[in-house]
Design brief:
The protein has 488 residues and is an alpha/beta fold. It is built from 17 helices and 20 strands. Among the domains are: 166 residues, FAD/NAD(P)-binding domain (3-Layer(bba) Sandwich), CATH 3.50.50.60; 111 residues, no CATH class.
Length: 488
């Protein structure tokens, strides 16, 4: 039986292990931490449990697929439900808008609250859908770096519809021209942050991200986001995948420009293929020190990061939905002097995810746990302690004003993640959440491929390589890798 080694047990690493197992490989996963999951992990503060990492579940069918590979019923392992309201948006001027999952209801809400013509929103969403339908098979489901990807009818359709992609305009320009209404422009600009980019730089093609959330909806994992990891990890154990925790890989072993295994301490483990689920930059800098480094790719602008406040709130605010976004006209001015914002964070948002005991038993009765995230630049040596102190004060003032609460008195326990924390905990270069940003029209082509052009049998998965960051794209990266290996 052929052997495969996976470096890192993030969701892409576990998914790669499962997919290779399904095609007959004997798989071993090496993980530096004493737990699986990478960025998607969990911790407790007293009686409160928090998901550390992604808090939004979209496109769960990609998770279901992994159970179906082994003829298992996904619903017996990983359960979730679709949300009626994806997000609830608040503005300083008192405007509140519910982003309903059902498209017609969402369009009606925009019309009722923001007085935007229904045809305007409907046309916008249809254009976004067209972009996605024309590009998904090329940009998301296959390697962009294999010649045969370009020998397809899908590519020809894309070329004939190139004008519709709006790649010569920024997302903000497209939204401003097509939607006009300031609240709605700001709302749809937010979707650039889904891959750590700026709406003022990323191309208009990115309206398709809004289509993905609207078309597929958002979901609540009934046992928390950590159950994505837990259920897939248990599936791996049932399939006799070996997980070696507290095992730091120090080198990818090469022979005649071919990956043949890894070094852990003074021990060498041999394999037929090696897949790195580590961030692509430390993969090269730490594990492939003597090999060729694709510096142009490694030096790309990194995506944004985040400041995250995890709060145990000793009160339940029943009037608030599970996910809340707060916008502010003055938000940029309030924080620009603190962050010295790059264009990535020109128009940041505050994202709050509230989970009460009624949902998944993550907080004591009558209490809630809050995940409060503020988009921020990645780590470039800032004084994060000073930044946290100022931002925390401003955020509390903002929450109190917009939601009409006195939240600080309700904070029972707290944990704070900065970009430096994220970098140290997950080895994500500079603490960026999505690898490189998508701040120019060629970004998709400049991401590192899922394989090495110089080293045979070496592959890459995860958010820092093609097709990008976020749980769905990480899972797709694993699928692309397994298909390349299967068809080699």
């Amino acid at each position: 039986m052929k052997k495969a080694i996976i470096i890192g047990s993030g969701v892409a690493g576990i998914a790669s292990a499962l997919r290779l197992k399904s095609i007959g490989y004997d798989v071993v996963v090496f993980e530096n931490n004493n737990y699986p999951g990478g960025k998607l992990s969990s911790f407790n503060l007293g009686d409160y449990r928090f998901d550390a990492g992604p808090s939004l579940l979209t496109m769960p069918h990609f998770i279901d697929e992994l159970f179906q590979l082994f003829d298992e019923d996904p619903s017996k392992n990983f359960t979730y439900k679709k949300k009626e309201i994806s997000c609830k948006y608040f503005w300083d001027d008192g405007v509140i808008l519910n982003a309903y999952s059902e498209k017609d209801r969402f369009i009606n809400e925009i019309n009722n609250v923001l007085k935007v013509d229904k045809k305007v929103v409907s046309t916008y969403l249809k254009r976004a859908k067209k972009k996605y339908d024309l590009t998904k098979s090329i940009f998301l489901e296959k390697s962009l770096h294999k010649f045969k990807t370009y020998l397809s009818l899908d590519l020809l359709r894309g070329i004939f519809n190139l004008f519709s992609f709006q790649i010569n305009k920024t997302l903000n320009e497209v939204n401003s021209e097509e939607l006009s209404e300031p609240h709605l422009v700001q709302l749809f600009n937010r979707f650039a942050t889904y891959n750590g980019s700026s709406p003022f730089k990323t191309p208009g093609m990115m309206t398709l991200i809004q289509h993905l959330e609207q078309e597929y909806g958002t979901y609540v994992s009934k046992k928390g986001m950590i159950n994505i990891v837990n259920s897939l990890y248990k599936l791996g154990l049932r399939q006799n995948i070996e997980f070696k925790f507290n095992h730091l890989v120090s080198e990818i072993i090469l022979e005649n420009k071919k990956a043949v295994g890894v070094r852990v301490n003074d021990q060498i483990f041999k394999s037929d293929v090696v897949i790195s689920n580590m961030d692509i930059v430390p993969t090269y800098k730490s594990l492939l020190k003597t090999s060729f480094h694709p510096e142009k790719i490694l030096q790309q602008e990194r995506s944004s990061s985040a400041l995250i406040f995890y709060w145990g709130i000793n009160k339940s605010f029943k009037n608030l939905e599970l996910h809340n976004i707060l916008f502010s006209k003055n938000y940029k001015e309030e924080f620009e002097s603190i962050f010295k914002y790059s264009s990535i964070c020109k128009d940041p948002t505050v994202y709050i995810n509230i989970t009460s005991k009624d949902v998944i038993s993550d907080a004591p009765k009558g209490c809630e746990n809050w995940f409060v995230m503020i988009n921020s630049p990645n780590n470039s040596g800032q004084d994060w302690d000073a930044i946290v102190k100022t931002v925390r004060s401003n955020i509390i003032k903002k929450i109190n004003k917009v939601l009409d609460v006195d939240i600080e008195k309700q904070i029972e326990c707290e944990k704070i993640y900065t970009p430096l924390t994220i970098e140290n905990n997950t080895q994500s270069f500079l603490g960026s959440l999505y690898g490189s940003s998508s701040n120019n029209k060629m970004s998709a082509f400049l991401r590192h491929p899922n394989f090495s052009n110089d080293i045979e049998n070496l592959y890459f998965c995860g958010g820092s390589v093609h097709p990008g960051g976020g749980i769905p794209l990480c899972l797709l990266s694993a699928k692309i890798v397994s298909e390349i290996i299967k068809n080699k």
